[in-house]
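Mods, move this if it's the wrong board.
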Amino acid sequence: MLSSLPTEVSLDLDPSVGARPATVQALRSTDPSKPSLTDVTLERARDGEPPRLTLRVPPAQPAGVYSGVVVDAENSRLLGTLRVRIGEG
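Not the wrong board. Structure tokens:
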């Protein structure tokens, strides 16, 4: 995670996600005036390691809670949820 702001991440994944190609959809706030977090990726598990989440939070991102879903890249099946809380800088 790359963020200059206080950030808390909660990721809930289906156990099958490690073997599947996954896509993280944009993380949105319930406040439509706040921009979505779009620089989010989830790499497949490798060599017995768990999947790797990469999240970049822009320095000017407004504080708040942002959430989204993780889906199978091949069939769009729901694989999990991601929630990010960004604090004041």
